[in-house]
Hints:
Distance between the termini of chain A: 47 Å
Radius of gyration of chain A: 19 Å
Structural class of chain A: mainly alpha
Oligomer: homodimer
Number of strands of chain A: 0
Number of helices of chain A: 9
Largest sheet of chain A: none
Shape of chain A: globular
Order of helices and strands of chain A: HHHHHHHHH
Mean pLDDT of chain A: 84
Amino acid sequence: MSDTRGYHHGDLRRTLLDAAVQAIGESGPAALSLRELARRAGVSHAAPAHHFGDRAGLFTAIAVQGYDILAEALAGAGGELLDLGVAYVEFAVRHRAHFEVMFHPDLYRADDPEVRAARERSGAVLRAGLADRSARPTPAAGTPDPADRPGGDGDRDGSPAEPQGDVLAAWSIVHGFATLWLAGALPAGLGEDPGDAARSVIRHLLTPDAGTD
Amino acid sequence: MSDTRGYHHGDLRRTLLDAAVQAIGESGPAALSLRELARRAGVSHAAPAHHFGDRAGLFTAIAVQGYDILAEALAGAGGELLDLGVAYVEFAVRHRAHFEVMFHPDLYRADDPEVRAARERSGAVLRAGLADRSARPTPAAGTPDPADRPGGDGDRDGSPAEPQGDVLAAWSIVHGFATLWLAGALPAGLGEDPGDAARSVIRHLLTPDAGTD
DNA sequence: GCTGCATCTTGTCAACGACAAGATAGGCTG
DNA sequence: CAGCCTATCTTGTCGTTGACAAGATGCAGC
């Protein structure tokens, strides 16, 4: 796959996306250059522009891919709020590049139809997962909706789906933990596995007295 | 202040910092150009380089300033974990530019001595604030330490100051809420005041059954 | 086998970050 | 007061980048 035969590459778009994700994972989104990307893929400097239009277009494609991967990860996590949270953190760490792009709306076109659709897919998966946990010792579920105000404004479509406070709290805690972990801001001593560390942190939200594990 | 008399500006460094913070607040850190910054300040295109060395130096100065502002904000919040959290979120929203820079270590030199010192100052203020709440209905305090692993590695100095899990959970939830708010990822319907919204979210962590206010 | 079109290339331009070298001015020493 | 000294700011330049335009290539369908 991704053999670079003469003129027509065959699957250049995929190759560029993979190389971009790898480069972002190494040096962050800001350091990504379209020309360096083309160099990595062994094509001319203007080839990426054809597939993605411009830099923002490339990040838009990565964001779409990221929301799809997130949906898949959440779908495989079951309906427990704890497991969903751990899956969220593990997604962020395993797919660091996607995660960083997804939550930097200034990098891409967050109102792009494909982005909206992918975001809606992942939101639907999350809602479906949470619907499982109906009556639990932990507070009841609502209908969450990750990332629906891309530009900072842009009102909802008037639907009464204001997420329950506990889901918002859960989203905040896993998103914050993942972000701090990726930023290297967390103190050492949490171990190497972000999933395990996240599990013990999330427990503080779910149970009133989570001991100092 | 900041009068632009002939050759020597008088307080160009301060002027540049202010202009940079404003520009970042408008368009994000990635869009900040040293030359555009110089243009805003009415100086030549190489003037910023003298004061900050390079682009990373500018962001380093902003990060230092940000940690100092955060320390001040936390100092004025009292020792309640809830109030500290609200202050954290309000800092992030009011000083969005500083906050965004601070938690993007790839933008600046996170191991710079001045940064380490400023970070230590804000950590000390937080520790002092938390020391107040000794015996409470909520779990006991530990010794937190915001952002002590800048580059992703860099082990602690072997001190046994592993933060308590509940403080980590608190930090995660406020940091996550602030980040999601700034990213425009939160659904509408939370109102206009991030402090109030944060307060109700944080309550879910502190009390076992926080109603759906 | 010819044409249409997506794919990729070459060429170019303005803007940028970084660096070097020079100009200016305020302060300090004598 | 004279001379220098140094921080501050300017001008000039180089390599790189993103974006655009125009052309080359080759696959796919008629």
